[in-house]
């Protein structure tokens, strides 16, 4: 119903525009054929027969006769004024309107077909958009999981690096302590050796002194 209403308005608009644009011209009246003569009288020679709807320009008017020029072939002559109308004949208007209606119907069919194609295209776009959205959601979820895994990996890496640093420090301290213990043990062995040598030396001195004292006593008693 809406389509028919729109077509009716278009047809009426075209009809109104046609009347305005053709108002300066004249046409042979409806369903009729008239004579075009050399002068404004039935006694003048017939130049041509003009069928209904032939467009002419009115050049002059004398009484009931009009001097006209046929637009499609350029012939000039006189025709009876009452057989000329300023409007486009109904039969011609009807034919043109039928052509316009057929053209509008064809355009409407093309538009409907285009709309159907666009509808299918939109449906295809909607399906593709849904698929892309699902893929994006899956990628987002995977990204979040990878991000969590990366955060855990970075935490473990930080702990490992800290532990490795502590281990290097502990090894360094252990090496220092081992070296200090080695030096201390060497120093203590040296002290023990010197102490033993001193004790032995003292023993030898004491033994030598005691031996000399005994020799002196023997010499005194002998």
What is the makeup of the main sheet? Answer: 5 strands, antiparallel
pLDDT < 50 stretches: 1-23
Nearest-integer average pLDDT: 77
The CATH architecture of the domain at 2-109 is Roll
Q: State the CATH superfamily name of the domain at 2-109.
A: SH3 Domains
Number of strands: 7
Radius of gyration: 65 Å
Task: Describe the protein.
The protein is an alpha+beta fold and 222 residues long. The chain has a domain at 2-109: SH3 Domains (SH3 type barrels, Roll), CATH 2.30.30.40. The protein is built from two helices and seven strands. The chain has helices at 2-21, 90-221; strands at residues 26-28, 33-37, 46-51, 55-62, 65-70, 76-80, 84-85. A five-stranded antiparallel beta sheet has the order 6-5-4-1-7, with no helix packed on it. A two-stranded antiparallel ribbon has the order 2-3. Strand 5 and strand 6 form a beta hairpin. The longest helix is centred in the C-terminal third of the chain and has 132 residues, at 90-221.
Question: Layout of helices and strands, plus pairs?
Answer:
Layout: H1 2-21, E1 26-28, E2 33-37, E3 46-51, E4 55-62, E5 65-70, E6 76-80, E7 84-85, H2 90-221
Antiparallel strand pairs: 1-4, 1-7, 2-3, 4-5, 5-6
Helix pairs in contact: 1-2
List the main descriptive attributes of the protein structure presented here:
222 residues; alpha+beta; SH3 type barrels; 5-stranded antiparallel β-sheet; two-stranded antiparallel sheet; 2 helices; rod-shaped; disordered N terminus
Question: Could you give a quick summary of the protein structure above?
Answer:
The chain has 222 residues and is of the alpha+beta class. Helices cover 68% and strands 16% of the residues.
């Amino acid at each position: 119903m809406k389509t028919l209403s729109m077509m009716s308005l278009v047809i009426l608009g075209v009809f109104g525009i046609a009347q305005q644009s053709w108002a300066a011209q004249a046409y042979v009246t409806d369903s009729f054929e008239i004579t075009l003569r050399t002068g404004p009288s039935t006694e003048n020679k017939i130049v041509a027969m003009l069928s209904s709807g032939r467009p002419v320009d009115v050049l002059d008017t004398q009484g009931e006769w009009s001097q006209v020029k046929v637009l499609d072939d350029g012939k000039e002559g006189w025709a009876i004024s009452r057989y000329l109308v300023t409007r486009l004949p109904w039969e011609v208007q009807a034919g043109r309107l039928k052509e316009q209606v057929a053209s509008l119907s064809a355009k409407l069919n093309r538009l409907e077909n285009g709309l159907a194609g666009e509808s299918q295209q939109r449906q295809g776009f909607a399906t593709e958009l849904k698929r892309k959205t699902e893929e994006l959601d899956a990628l987002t979820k995977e990204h979040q999981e990878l991000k969590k895994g990366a955060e855990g990996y970075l935490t473990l890496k930080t702990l490992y690096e800290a532990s490795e640093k502590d281990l290097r420090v502990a090894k360094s301290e252990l090496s220092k302590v081992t070296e200090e213990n080695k030096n201390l043990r060497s120093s203590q062995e040296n002290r023990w050796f010197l102490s033993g040598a001193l004790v032995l030396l003292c023993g030898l001195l004491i033994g030598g002194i005691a031996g000399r004292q005994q020799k002196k006593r023997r010499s005194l008693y002998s």
